[in-house]
Amino acid sequence: MTEEPKVGSIVHVEFAVKEPAKVKKFYGDLFGWKFQDVPEMDYVLFEAPSGPGGGIGPVMEGQQPGITNYLKVENIDDTIERIERAGGKILVPKQEVPGQGWMSWFEDPAGTRMALWQQTPRSP
Fold first, then answer.
1. Cβ atoms 107, 91 nearer than 8 A
2. Under-70 pLDDT residues of the chain
3. Which of 14, 36, 63, 77 has its CA 20 to 30 A from that of 42?
């Protein structure tokens, strides 16, 4: 049984790129990453041999190409407030990913961009 990631752990790594197919081929060929296409979202999920998995998608309007790490949180609303009180800046407000959870992007006081992830509770 795999241990559940702890709060504050990186749980998703997202590549925003101009040519997702090239990135998919590069990491698949070099490191054996496994992929699952999600055509309705223009997105590809990946699984690395260990560590967090993630996704590859196109650069969205107003976004720079690059990688965003998502941190696990228990309460995204509380964490957003704490980020702002600590001098961080919310870049993308809380958004629902239907059936999955909630996300929000932020910038720390040094300018590093990260994201929050609160998983939807699983039904028994």
1. yes
2. 1-2, 123-124
3. 77
CA–CA separation, 19 vs 74, rounded Å? Answer: 33
C-alpha to C-alpha distance for 86 and 98, rounded to whole angstroms:
29
Of the candidates 35, 73, 51, 72, the residue with the CA atom closest to the CA atom of residue 2 = 51
Report CA-CA distances (Å) from 120 to 2, 28, 56, 66, 108: 19, 29, 21, 26, 25
**74-81: which pairs have CB atoms within 8 A and are 24 or more residues apart?**
74/7, 74/118, 75/118, 76/102, 76/103, 76/104, 76/116, 76/117, 76/118, 79/116, 80/104, 80/106, 80/116
Contact of 23 with 56, CB cutoff 8 Å: yes
User: What pTM value is reported for the model?
Assistant: 0.88
